[in-house]
Queue: 2 jobs
Job 1
Amino acid sequence: MAAEVRRGVADEAAEEASQLVRVHLGLERCADAGGAADTRLEAPLGDKAEAYNHDLRFQAAVGDALKASGVDLTGLDLGSDDGVMVGTVVAWMESEPSALTSLTLDWGKVCGRVREALLGAVRKTHTLVALSVGEERAMPLNPLQLNGREAVPSLDLSGKRLGPASAAVVAAGVSVNGVLTSLNLGFNDLTEEAALGIVRVERQRNKLTSLSLARCSIGPTGAAEIAEYVSGSAVLTTLALPHNSIGAEGAAAIAEALRGNGVMTTLNLKGNNIRAEGAAALASALRVNGVLTSLDVGSNGLTEEAALGIVRVERQRNKLTSLALENCGIGPTGAAEIAEYVSGSAVLTSLNLCNNNIHVTGAIAIAEALRGNGVLTNLDLSGNNIGGETDYIKASEVEGESKEVGAKVVYQGREMVVSEGVDSDGELKLADRTGILAIAKALEVNGVLTSIDLRGNNLSDEGKKAIQDAVSGREGFKLEM
């Protein structure tokens, strides 16, 4: 155990504690620690470390070191409930040390008594602002923010490499926090059980309006427990569970919770492999749910028909302001039906159809809907081959004076542009510009849209220019190509 002394302990005592503890860890030989007479200190202790825990001088040094503002317990043997130093450390934690601001230990190597004492300290501390629990590369946690003594209403702990130990600390702090209303623990290294620990605390606390548990290894069983939480919550308005594995069974449980829920407005189930069965359950729930306004079911292995099942319900329901159907197998026919939905919706402001295959004819249908739509502000059509590029085809099947890149030609009765010139096999590629040009024309008359994503569509230079010209001069417009 090393100690950084800022206040609360004499320099001499702190130095003795630091040296003795380093010897205990086998980091220094006896001579380097002041020439102590104990023969056990003449070499790194190795397997004799446990015996040294009983040394009264060592225990006294630990006692002094624990008065420091920064304490590292990783070198102490705290693995057994009846260990010699366990009582000292537990008593110290329970005393609410007033100088302590930074604490480090290895959760995986300490016993249950120490863990419980630590969680109790997290709930009660008025000083501790940096806590590390031995998870590699994990961000230290701030217990004062967790327990609410630093009154922050929103905590974003996403992507901080937190694991189950950190989740236990978060749960302990949040359990006594009266101000926190938004918590994001997504994209860490949590297990399902660790994530559910947070949920169980919140079921009792009932204050979060927003909870994000993205990529937390949540499966069908975990989803069922979360569904019970949703059913009983009168305050949770946003639930984000993207990139888990809840499957159709988990989606059905969430859908059942939605039937009787009157507060949740935003649900993100992206990347959960809910498939057609799960989508059908959600569509059925939407029929009787009057409050949900934002839904993301992208990248769930849906067929076009499954995705359209949700669209058809929503055409009657007309409540969603945001709908994400990324990578849902939607082709030109499905895009045409979605375009009809867009034309008739007076509330939909955001539509995500990226990574489908609506192609040229689908783009034309969407463009037609944009012409008369007065509410849609954000549209994502990236990755849909709107540029209409063909596979390699025989140059002999193409009509036109020139087969050079950019030349206008006719193929199967349609005017197209050469996107790749004739190769050694006598083949070329063509691009159908009508889809992207239709969108450009629609943008010229649509004054509401503020963002459009057209990346990954094999757009020709002419198509890009048409889009740029259409939105030129529109302050704040976000265009991605």
Note: The CA atoms of residues 402 and 409 lie 8 Å apart.
Job 2
Amino acid sequence: MSLVAEPQIPGRGTTAPPSLEDIRLDALSHREWRVIDTRLPEHDAPCVLGFIERCGNRYETLVLGRGVRRYSFPSLAEAKRHFAR
């Protein structure tokens, strides 16, 4: 059995994806949130994992990283959970 090192997340300064407890939602308005990885310093741009916006009865996520990806979820809790991989 060989051990393979977990790949480093580009620009994140950490190897492990954030847990649900590591993620904080900062309200930008009554329907928009910034998704923060609390393991990283707040003044560092890589702490921003993405954004969540309520669109009708859905929650749209904008995930930052290598490129930008969008997803849609039926609840804010599920949208937040998506950032904890």
Note: Confidence is low (pLDDT under 50) at residues 1-10.
